[in-house]
Amino acid sequence: MNPRYELEFVEAIHSREPVGGLTHNFYRYPARFSPLFARGAIKMLTEPGELVLDPFMGGGTALVEARVLGRQAIGSDINPLSIFITQVKTTPLSASDIAQIEAWGATLGPELNLRNEAVRDWDWIRAGYQRNIDGKSTWAIRKALELGLTAVAGLPEETQRRFARCALLRTGQWALDCRSHIPSVSEFRLQLKVNLENMIASAQEYAHAAATAETYVAEGESIRTVTLLQSVVGIDRNETVRCAPAPALILTSPPYPGVHVLYHRWQVQGRRETPAPYWIANCLDGNFASYYTFGDRQQQNLMSYFQQLQAGFESLARLADARTVLVQMVAFSDPASQLPRYLEMLKQAGWFEVSYPTISNGRDGRVWRETPNRKWYADQRGIIPASKEVVLFHRLP
Known about the structure:
This protein is an alpha/beta fold and 397 residues long. It is built from 15 helices and 10 strands. It has a domain at 3-77 and 227-269 and 304-395: Rossmann fold (3-Layer(aba) Sandwich), CATH 3.40.50. Helix 3 (61-68) links the parallel strand 1 and strand 2 (72-77). The relative contact order is 0.14.
């Protein structure tokens, strides 16, 4: 533990600043933790060149921060949308990439005219990926997205096309997800222009920071950021992970027990769900919410959740060594009963809790933080049990 960054980490844990900076706002991935928290943990608990692992990487926050701090990073997730978003966020764009994307964006407006004929993606349509976005109030946004995706093909490099898809994904989320009023196509075009401009500026900031970070490691070494479509259960058998050094830090936020989070759907005009994000990102889904959360929140005693999570942490224990620190941000629908059970699960998986008295703020010696107005699903806001999160520290014996 580097005491120079202890105060910075404490301030980061309790910060209520909105998520921002670098490429973090490319997409609003549900239940993401703060970049300040990730940055503080990485600086306090690792050195440049060491490995940071996030086995529930979600929107890739930990990987973005690890990259610009000069750390090696591996992230995994079972959600293909997570892989797409994180790869876009952690891929530095060249000056040529930026120029191509800017030129593409400058001519995009006329392409999104509803009088133009859209190329219908019939394979995606038949598979249900446009479900609930083709109604009376949403069809125009659906068509604008189709026109935008057709225009993406005009970019010459796959890196550029993925970036453009991400801009459409971000704007589609703004237009459709949890909105009571669906914007007009004119508003959609304007927001897409704003998003594209902001994303280009953020990508330039990230590319500069990533290039600077190369100077933090020894001469001849390079910084790698790897994303894997891989469950935490069995991650120790993945060849890429097995060949890497033991992680200095496992920094993550697993699914919260008993808390409903939609990682894989947008909610359109109430609770009508759509898998449209996968169509826009050009990746397949096909799984239920319980697949991404280790079991339905209504399951009796959350047996499946704890069994699968224990297997996952056992896999992580086989990758770690005595220097590895496991840092998690977790919340509970019923903290009084679930936290002791969660800690026992970690102990059974081979992990033992450690405390840092100089940063704790709870009577139990742990670090707790309030997150008011955390939106777990469309219509629930405010101080709910899961709005109080705890930061847990564990090591191997």
